[in-house]
Design brief:
4 helices, elongated, mainly alpha
């Protein structure tokens, strides 16, 4: 299992941003912002039976909280 530090070191040796992002994905690291995290929460927890098609305020709030929690874990 690759640590986050090892994954970042590997990614920084790649050519350009696309190469760095590809290296991170290869090591199971995902980059997320509130929009992408909201969509992921919506896709996983609301799924195809949702009464709405796009992330709602609750999804966005949960995304902000998850990103904040993840930021604290990686510090």
């Amino acid at each position: 299992m690759t640590t986050m530090r090892e994954a970042l070191d590997k990614a920084m040796r790649r050519e350009g941003a696309d190469g760095a992002m590809a290296a991170l994905r290869e090591d199971g690291i995902a980059m997320a912002d509130v929009d992408t995290m909201s969509q992921a929460i919506h896709d996983v927890y609301c799924g195809i039976v949702a009464d709405h098609q796009h992330p709602n305020d609750k999804d966005r709030d949960q995304a902000r909280q998850l990103i904040q929690a993840l930021s604290g874990q990686s510090a």
